[in-house]
Amino acid sequence: MTLTDTIKGTFMYTIDLAYVGRGLHEELAAYIADQEDYYAQEGVHVALRDGCTWDEERLRRGATIGLGRALLSRLTDATPWVALNVNTHRPLFWFLARPGLTSLADLAGRRLAVHAPHTAPGCFTRIVLRKAGLDPDRDIDTIVRMPGDYGMDLRRLHDGSIDAALVGSTMAPEAVAAEHGWHVLGWVGDHFQIPTVGLAVDPTYTDPNDPAVQAVLRAHRRALQVIHNDPDTTVRHMQTFLGGHTADEIRAHYKSFIAPHFTTDGQADLAVGDTAITAVAAELGVPATFTAADFYRTTTTTP
């Protein structure tokens, strides 16, 4: 629910905004909007909340960055989430593997650390594995773990207790692979596209046209412009997330995965969205009861 407040004599709206994953994929646009003071300039006080372990009932009472989780929730339990802004169509997750594995097909019979099937990254991973000709339940020894900074995965890759791991954007996987002599078997975004991460609300509690929501949308779209037009500023902010990497490694990561694939205006490609919804529903074993145009209402603008 949005409220109003007065901060230092200026009338501002307020809103809770929850992230449900960690790393650049989830947080970059919101982080830039916060650090560059775009929220305040747009007249909204945003309380950034860690919703990674929240249940859906608590999450739906504010705005969320996690469009993948919102989409799965709408498919499986009919929570009427709508997405108002999309940051990218290519999920920032990678398959990182020990020496000896050079392709996704090589995961057959191997131990893979991965997110749970009912989570968005876990579901996307299963779709990618099936495209590679692998049954994720029969052909791979999956070790399910909670998302985090993936540090434990790196330790297990070192000691050989796992052969590969699906890792997210808390690291630059190509730099990590080069350092340790490992391999990046594939980027999920190369194999599966879906309009993901941005801003979603449940209209049961939050009107998409609420002034606070519209102010956040403006701030996030300004942040997307920074990502495209100001590499130095973007790389500087990325350093916060990738503190274990050199400036050159971060800039290379930006050039490969961020600049070419983040949207400039927050708009969803509805054709990509329809294909993705069909694939996700099939993987979850539920009917696709809505279209991309129903879910991705990215034409919402300030009156």
Describe, in plain words, how this protein is organized in 3D:
The radius of gyration is 19 Å and the shape is globular. The chain has a 5-stranded mixed sheet with strand order 8-7-9-6-10, with helices on both faces. It is built from 13 helices and 11 strands. The two termini are 20 Å apart. The protein is an alpha/beta fold and 303 residues long. It has 2 domains: 190 residues, Periplasmic binding protein-like II (D-Maltodextrin-Binding Protein, domain 2); 96 residues, D-Maltodextrin-Binding Protein, domain 2.
Number of strands: 11
The tally of structural domains comes to 2
Mass-distribution shape: globular
Number of helices: 13
Structural class: alpha/beta
**CATH superfamily placement of the largest domain:** Periplasmic binding protein-like II
CATH overall fold name of the largest domain: D-Maltodextrin-Binding Protein, domain 2
Distance between the termini: 20 Å
CATH hierarchy, class of the largest domain: Alpha Beta
Oligomer: single chain
Looking at this protein, list some descriptive labels.
303 residues, D-Maltodextrin-Binding Protein, domain 2, 41% helix
Brief rundown of the structure:
The protein has 303 residues and is α/β, with parallel strands linked by helices. The protein is 41% helix and 19% strand. The chain has helices at residues 24-35, 38-41, 56-59, 67-77, 120-131, 151-159, 173-180, 188-191, 211-229, 231-241, 247-258, 270-284, 292-295, and strands spanning 3-7, 10-19, 44-50, 63-64, 82-88, 94-97, 111-114, 141-144, 164-167, 183-187, 196-201.
